[in-house]
Amino acid sequence: MKKCCVVLMLVIVSFAYANTKVYVDSVKPLYLTQDSQKIVGKLLPTSEVTIIKKVGNKVLLSLQGYIQEGSDNALYFVMGKRILIAGLTKNSGIKFNVLGTQKDKDTQTTYQKVSLELWSDEGGLSGNLDDLYTKAKDLYSQNCSICHSLHASTEFKANQWPSVIKSMSGRTGLNKDEIYLITQYLQKHASDVK
User: CATH says 129-188 is which class?
Assistant: First the structure.
């Protein structure tokens, strides 16, 4: 009886997480299977994912975004902008479900809207995107206004922000996760992102 109750509780807890939308708060490893130790990608901060199920300390995540046709190593937030949701290992065996195909008007590049399911560790997920943006904005304000006046997020385009941040991050005490968080925040609030 006791064993049956434990199994039932695990099933209930697993379903409690099903279809929960959350946001990544730090760089997270991605795996093909629950038991795999081989990393097939990295999920970046502020990316929206859906928890499909939880098993032990692992979660099966559903991701949705854009890939350039013929290239499967980067999952983008929107077409035509290099705002990464996840960097993926080439030839990793990741299965993409193609939801549609369209050509970006500005770049003439063909993109496929895709969804995919990958496993990750359960930590580092937040239910509140605004909290992550507030943290990023505070880190940006505290660390990037020491040498010069703070650039408005709309001062640069989404594809320019990574280079701008990279050129200045060495003068700060920011760690890699904080740099990624700030970069994602600035890209998603850039002048050319709606």
Answer: mainly alpha
The segment(s) of the chain belonging to CATH 1.10.760 are 129-188
Amino acid (one-letter) located at 88? L
3-state class (DSSP) for residue 58: strand
CB 119, CB 33: distance < 8 Å: yes
Q: Answer yes or no: pTM beyond 0.90.
A: no
Q: Which amino acid is at 176?
A: K
Q: What is the pLDDT of residues 112-144, one digit of tens each?
A: 999 999 999 999 999 999 999 999 999 999 988
Which residue type, as a one-letter code, is found at position 192? D
- The beta-strand segments (E) located in 25-146 are 28-31, 39-43, 48-55, 58-68, 74-76, 84-88, 97-103, 110-121, 125-126
Beta bridge partners of 112: 67, 101
Q: Looking at 11-25, 32-46, 87-101, 157-171, which range is the least confident one?
A: 11-25
Nearest in space to 43 (alpha carbons), one of 57, 58, 23:
23
